[in-house]
Amino acid sequence: MKSVLAERLKNMKVFKKIFAIALCGILIASAFAGCSKSGEADKITDKTMLIAYTDEVEPFLYKDKNGKLAGFDIDLFKKIYDNVKNDTKNYKFVKVDKDYKVGDDIAYTNKDGDEFIAYTMIGAVQKNVGSVNEDFSFTNDIITNRIITVTKSGNNISDYNDLSGKKLAVVTDIAKAALDKNATIKNSNKNTLYPTIEDALSALDNGSVDAVITDEFNFSPLENAEKYQVLNGELDKISYAFMFKKGDWVVENWNEAIYELKSPDYNDKDEFTPMVEKYFGYNASSFDYVPSKTK
């Protein structure tokens, strides 16, 4: 009788050890699963967030020397993905046609014929162009490129009213387009197109022109930008943001995720602004979102 009881107790101890080992294995696996980071998908499934883009536009989105997508929009998305992923497990960037309607059109079809829609578009997406503001929803402006007027410091041009009758150097197509929309300034001056900002500033320095009309992307990263005077105001402003299907409720989540990346209250430091300066050479952001609870 004792030998039977001893055998039962022995078997019970073995079972407990096996159960404890199995339980530890489950707990360890769960811990690693909980700590794992979401990343780019190898295979697109219904748990993959598709991020659409059209053209490669540096420094927003482009392919690096290894053929991988890089740029400001790519890095920003990767930084905030874990805060905006909802029930997705991973993400994939997909190239689409220029007329792609985010949130409606098919962005990818797999070999089995399964179709997938992209609900977000990135990559130098512009607001305030045509009817896009009415057709889609956007985050708050993330990056802004102003069309500005640059003059010599200490000259007799202090505002746009002083430009009448002056000789203007115009750099970049978007600066020319902005000037074309401001007929009063355009028609009251002699305007000359220059191929580069360096050429235009050289003409300003030697007195060939009185002012330079250009965009901040071209001018602000220059090492000698501070030696010149930039007139208050702008001829135009180009706003870049992330695009979503009209009325999509997730836009607020994306705004909050960018806000948290920028705010030292959520991180040890502002991680957003250094990223902007890395890609644009200066702080080109006008992101001014404030969560409603902190307004």
Overview features:
single chain; 295 residues; alpha/beta; D-Maltodextrin-Binding Protein, domain 2; 2 domains; six-stranded mixed β-sheet; five-stranded mixed β-sheet; 15 strands; elongated
Structure overview:
The protein is α/β, with parallel strands linked by helices and 295 residues long. It folds into two domains: 142 residues, Periplasmic binding protein-like II (D-Maltodextrin-Binding Protein, domain 2, 3-Layer(aba) Sandwich); 93 residues, D-Maltodextrin-Binding Protein, domain 2. 34% of the residues lie in helices and 22% in strands. The strands form four sheets. Strands 9, 10, 11, 12, 13 and 14 form a six-stranded mixed β-sheet that branches. A five-stranded mixed β-sheet has the order 4-1-7-15-8. A two-stranded antiparallel sheet has the order 2-3. β5 and β6 form a beta hairpin. α2 crosses α8. 28% of the residues are buried.
The outline comes out as elongated
CATH hierarchy class name of the largest domain: Alpha Beta
Give the tally of β-strands: 15
Give the SSE string: HEEEHEEEEHEEEHHEHEHEEEHH
Percent of residues in β-strands: 15-25%
Termini gap = 78 Å
Radius of gyration: 28 Å
Sheet/helix structural class: alpha/beta
Structural domains: how many: 2
Summed up, the helix count is 9
Mean pLDDT: 89
Q: Determine the CATH superfamily of the largest domain.
A: Periplasmic binding protein-like II
Spans of at least 5 consecutive residues with low confidence = 12-16, 19-36
CATH architecture tag of the largest domain: 3-Layer(aba) Sandwich
CATH fold descriptor of the largest domain: D-Maltodextrin-Binding Protein, domain 2
Q: In this structure, how is the largest beta sheet organized?
A: 6 strands, mixed
Helix fraction, binned, reads 25-40%
